[in-house]
Amino acid sequence: MTQSLPILSLVTWLPIAFGVAVLAVGNDRSPAAARWTALVGSVLGFLACLPLWTGFSTAPGAGMQFEELKAWIPLFNVNYHLGVDGISMPLILLNSFMTVLVVVAHWKVVTDRVAQYLAAFLIMSGLINGTFAALDAIVFYVFFEAMLIPMFLIIGVWGGPNRVYAAVKFFLYTLLGSLLMLAAFIFLYHKTNGSFEILDYHKLPLGMTAQVLVFLAMFMSFAVKVPMWPVHTWLPDAHVEAPTGGSVILAAITLKIGAYGFLRFNMPIAPDASHALAGFMITLSLVAVVYIGLVALVQADMKKLIAYSSISHMGFVTLGFFLFNAEGVLGGLVQMVSHGFVSAAMFLCVGVLYDRVHSRQISDYGGVANTMPVFAAFFVLFAMANSGLPATSGFVGEFFVIMGAVKVNFWYAFLAATTLIFGAAYTLWMVKRVVYGEVANENVAALKDVDARELVFLVLLAACVLAMGVYPKPFADVMNPTIHELLKHVATSKLS
Questions:
Q1: Contacts of 138 (CB under 8 A, 6+ apart)
Q2: Residue 2 burial (CB count, 10 A)
Q3: Burial class, 488, CB count within 10 angstroms (exposed 0-12 / middle 13-18 / buried 19+)
Q4: Are 82 and 67 spatial neighbours (Cβ–Cβ below 8 Å)?
Q5: Is 366 left (phi over 0), alpha (psi -120 to 50) or beta?
Q6: pTM to 2 decimals?
Q7: Spatial CB neighbours of 30, under 8 Å, sequence gap ≥ 6
Q8: Among 228, 371, 406, 433, which one has the highest count of C-beta atoms within 10 angstroms of its own C-beta?
Q9: ∠ CA(329), CA(330), CA(334), 5° rounding?
């Protein structure tokens, strides 16, 4: 389905263009121009995405939509090829929506190098959209690697005391993993007699050994990005040191690129290897769900607790994918979108408190509901969603994954369901000590409730969490045709 209007190019390059414009007009003596330019750019970027939703066909077998194809490097047959399906399109909308919220959330908070800070988010937003839309392996790789640079700067320049260590660790983990992915792309390029088209790779008949090697090479890149246990250790450091906006985009969006990679590359290119290694993937996922959930229980820092919570919830996503049934994959995809809303909301709530008290330690709070009742209501709602409360988005994806797991193995479902217990335990433990009880100290007593700006992003996220929890059908309708096509493809052996 080729469109005359290049919508995907628009959603990719418009935020990048506005990011450059923010750098051009903004300076610290007059940051208002940078803020307003960034807000206009982020809103226009989100509005440009809406035709992807309204014009998306949910007919079975619709395939890639809104495609754009132009020759880029003819010598190596590299094409600027973009397109979306039911897997990538919702993630592009999620990313563009989160960019608007980050700009609004940091309207007053960041006062140092304002233009550079906001420009980094806009440029990263465009690069992430390009990553999700890319249908050429080299285009994907360029976007995939380029998006590391703005996040590296966000953590390294505006982060906490150990920001340089966290930024370098984040960069090295992701870069080293992706070099193996590039090697896999070069191997596939030669196997297809000179094509970097991702959809050509899906049709490539590979032997079992080749499939396993390709799977493992790409696994190293995407597992670090998710991150899966045991290559997850960079994430808590990055979250703790990153400014609030960095944590929001990191948790809500960039982790999803790793999970997306499994669906776009590993499973369709190496289906037999995916089946053969499913037990390995499910084991790692369940370790993340159970073990990392227990690790979250002992955290004293709110951001570190939510960071470990993210790893545990992303374990649910990879578990769902490698069950190879419609319920599991749909649950994993819904969980990706839901986790985007919920994790962003949790980090923004911590940011609201940090802006006032300049501490993320749970022990420094207590009785916040007495001085910030409106904020406390939102914080508790998002905590319930993080725990998987029915009628919130956090429940829907986990429920589908558990249903899919029951079909495969009861004990998979049993272990996966423990996240509902551990999630409630560590989230409610934090909420009880931060929100409830008597006013703990003078800092809490002096707190002022949320202002209009903070209310905007809290209300928007609450609406998303509740709407998706109560009525997830629009998301399922978009995702299901692509899921069924993927499972049909993965069920067909490529072994000759």
A1: 73, 76, 78, 185, 196
A2: 10
A3: exposed
A4: yes
A5: left
A6: 0.90
A7: none
A8: 228
A9: 120
Per-residue model confidence (pLDDT) at position 495: 61
Q: Which tens digits make up the pLDDT trace of 350-363?
A: 988 888 888 888 88
Q: Confirm if 66 and 3 have CB atoms less than 8 A apart.
A: yes
Write down the pLDDT at residue 436. Answer: 87
Alpha carbons within 13 angstroms on the beta-carbon side of residue 163 total: 15
Asked if 378 and 452 touch (Cβ cutoff 8 Å), the reply is no
Task: Return the pLDDT at 412.
Answer: 86
DSSP-assigned letters across all residues of 457-477: HHHHHHHHHHHHHH--HHHHH
Instruction: Specify whether the CB–CB gap between 268 and 490 falls below 8 A.
Output: yes
Helix axes 326-357, 473-491, angle to 10 degrees: 130
Distance CA 185, CA 198 (A): 9
Q: Are 52 and 6 in contact (CB under 8 A)?
A: no
Give every CB contact of residue 306 below 8 A, 6+ residues apart in sequence. Answer: 239, 247, 251, 343, 346, 347, 350, 386
What's the half-sphere exposure (Cβ side, CA atoms, 13 Å) at 269?
32
For residue 481 the two structure tokens come to 């045709």
Reported for 161-167, long-range contacts at CB under 8 A and 24+ positions apart, including other chains, are: 161/241, 162/237, 162/240, 162/241, 163/241, 163/242, 165/237, 165/241, 166/234, 166/237, 166/238, 166/240, 166/241, 166/242, 167/238, 167/241
CA nearest 46: which of 99, 107, 102? 99
C-alpha of 320 from chain center: 16
Residue with tokens 């390029």: 189
Q: How far apart are CA 110 and CA 247, in angstroms?
A: 14
User: What 8-state DSSP symbol labels residue 334?
Assistant: H
Residue with tokens 């610290």: 28
Per-residue pLDDT, 132: 93
Q: Are 438 and 369 in contact (CB under 8 A)?
A: no
